[in-house]
Design goal:
363 residues, Rossmann fold, 6-stranded mixed sheet, 24% helix
């Protein structure tokens, strides 16, 4: 595997517009060699355009694209050492699996004996040896996905680009393919840039995640960093399941709490750099709310809904006109029923405070 210090990929202030639509806007990030780097965000934020720019399929209007220290911004596709797997698989339907694998090597005029060796090695790695004579149309969705992957891997790319590769698979296959991709990443030490709108995919696979919005990047970090210290309300709302509870109100004069519909929420410590009476939002994860213990004072609430999820239950409670969600062990939630009165405790040490005007975190 490459040394973490080696930069495999660097995009600096990359911009791309299609008429009046800005697909990429001042996009900058670095990917260290051997990393599994995820571009995460809903559709139309620029994930696919970013991958196509790295691959050389799209020429940026401005900015710079470097691959292993060399400027490829205006260079042709060939020679980049980059391979891309598309969401649609893009297999040749009239060719066998063997010939789909072999095609890129035939184009590169690799000797026939070397092609055969690499095809069989790739098929073994992806557990596709029995399917080599079959055509893509006779394969399952998961098998077609593995063929698309194999056709990219057989070229021995230094960087593998994956554009929402699991979107067309059912839930069980997606789970299996996530594990398969992580195994291949470890086995080859590949540098992977993976685009997905799926939060579970991003958090379970990404060593580093770039949260995208409007053609730019809002925050880059490890899954833990994005979960623990979201930079703004957008990231806070995108990372974590169930999603963070957001409580709107105004800051107390001494910066020591939030006045809101459910009452006064005291902070664990005073905020600096915030104005008294400023509109603010307190975010708290469902896992940081619990039922009050015997004799413990808490927030008066009423049970609104129970969502059992096996060993945990998501419990929605209503308090002061707001609905809050908390996550409880199934054993603690089994005695609860909708309509029942409850007392809940919010952990002030776990509050995230954001400016209502800009959405930025107040630290």
């Amino acid at each position: 595997m490459g040394q973490a210090g080696n930069c495999a990929l660097s995009l600096a202030k990359v911009g791309k517009s299609y008429g009046s639509v800005r697909a990429l806007d001042n996009l900058s990030f670095n990917v260290a060699e051997g990393r599994f780097f995820v571009l995460f965000g809903p559709s139309s934020v620029g994930k696919t355009t970013t991958l196509r720019t790295i691959a050389g399929l799209v020429a940026p209007d401005r900015g710079r694209v470097e691959i292993f220290g060399r400027d490829w911004t205006r260079a042709p596709i060939a020679g980049r050492g980059v391979s891309m797997v598309f969401q649609s698989f893009a297999l040749y339907p009239h060719l066998s699996v063997y010939d789909n694998f072999a095609y890129p090597l035939v184009e590169e005029r690799v000797p026939r004996s070397e092609i055969d060796r690499r095809v069989r090695e790739t098929a073994a790695m992806l557990r596709l040896e029995p399917k080599l004579d079959r055509r893509p149309g006779t394969l399952s969705g998961g098998e077609q996905q593995r063929v698309a992957l194999g056709r990219s891997l057989i070229r021995r790319p230094r960087i593998l680009l994956l554009d929402e590769p699991l979107t067309n698979l059912d839930a069980k296959l997606r789970h299996d393919m996530r594990a398969e991709l992580k195994r291949l990443h470890r086995q080859f030490g590949l540098t992977v840039v993976y685009a997905t709108p799926d939060e579970l995919e991003a958090l379970s696979m990404g060593e580093e995640i770039a949260v995208m919005r409007d053609g730019g990047i809002v925050q880059i970090g490890t899954p833990d960093q994005l979960y623990e210290t979201p930079r703004d309300l957008y990231v806070a709302g995108k990372i974590g399941s169930p999603h963070m509870n957001l409580i709107r109100g105004t800051l107390a004069a001494d910066g020591a709490g939030l006045a809101c519909g459910i009452g006064a929420l005291p902070f664990a410590r005073r905020l600096g750099g915030a104005a008294a009476g400023e509109a603010a939002v307190v975010g708290i994860r469902p896992s940081d709310i619990r039922l009050a213990g015997d004799g413990e004072s808490g927030l008066a609430a009423r049970i609104a809904m129970l969502e059992p999820l096996g060993d945990i239950t998501v419990v929605s409670v209503e308090a002061g006109g707001a609905t809050l969600r908390m996550v409880l062990p199934e054993s603690a939630a089994s005695s609860l029923a909708p309509g029942q009165a409850a007392s809940v405790v919010l952990d002030p040490a776990r509050f995230h405070v954001f400016r209502a005007s800009s959405g930025q975190a107040i630290t």
